[in-house]
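JOB MANIFEST
job_type = single_chain_structure
chain_count = 1
residues = 350
[input]
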Amino acid sequence: MPRTGRAVVAYGQEFEIREYPVPDPEPKTILLRQELAGICGTDLHNWQNGFKTEILLGHENVGIVEAIGEGVTEDYVGKPIKEGDRVIFAPGTDYGGYGFQWNPDEAPHFRGGFADYMYLTYPNTCFMKTEASPEVAVLTEPFTVGVHAVMRGEIKFGDTVVIQGSGAIGLVTLACAKLSGAGKLIMVGGPAGRLELAKRLGADVTIDIEEVESAEDRTELVKSETPRGEGADVVFECAGFLPATPEGLGYTRRSGTFVEVGHFVDMGSIDFNINQLLMRKNLRVEAIWGSNYDHFVRGLPLLEKSDLPFADMVSHELPLSQVEDGFKALDGGYRINGETAIKIAVRAEE
């Protein structure tokens, strides 16, 4: 009897666990036994809209090499690879992406991270061996978004930086800004549990949106923490909510930089005064789209050697059977059993 493994299939806003045969890896491919897979904000926003067809999700992954196809001897950066090694991988490739995979019943089935296995089949997949713990390694993909954002933001030594949004992307962007030499870091977000972790990751000032509900009041508080009250040198919008963008533009000083990071899913349009918020402030505006292999190569060593408490970002590890609970927690209140949810990861083993 061939062995089987489980994979989560999403449709609409429902989740179903299905059993599929586990493949033996073809040449130039590897089979991973999943350890953890993070629930991404992009997963959440698409789930909120409802999936129109069946889909395999999960693109923030860490796993153990279960089997290696002929011809695979080293990882993307040239380190020797063997069965039992822990690896991470970039979900996007030139031939397709892992996660957000349609037609789950078509082989090979293990193309999404919410499963017992992941089959890396695309040519030139960027996978890298790591000595990091699973709780740190699973953050690699979102961390590379922070790497990309901060590189585009061109932070200078001593800059005053604001991060809007204290979810996973906001927190890793905060950490990357700290590692890049920011002099003062201001985090605007919530709830309080996430802001406490933000302080441990380097935030000098936190502003809780649950306590300071007015955008005007938040803007006044942010500016009061900047040199001469003129605003931040660089602002990163990582919340992914439409009103955050004009608010964040208002945080930015004249000739400063605003980086849009959070809108990976089309959440609609918004009106704002282009003359007042952009032109008269002589702003530089950047927008990033995910990350690429270079960001993985740059980012993973920083994750591995940093003393920052990255592992504490993974607040909850849920079995496959409870993946829906994770989505619902992120959709309403950011709490599970009364505890603040920061990063929710799905584990293969029950």
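[summary]
The mean pLDDT is 96.
Residues 145-287 form a domain with the Rossmann fold fold (CATH 3.40.50.720).
exit_status = 0
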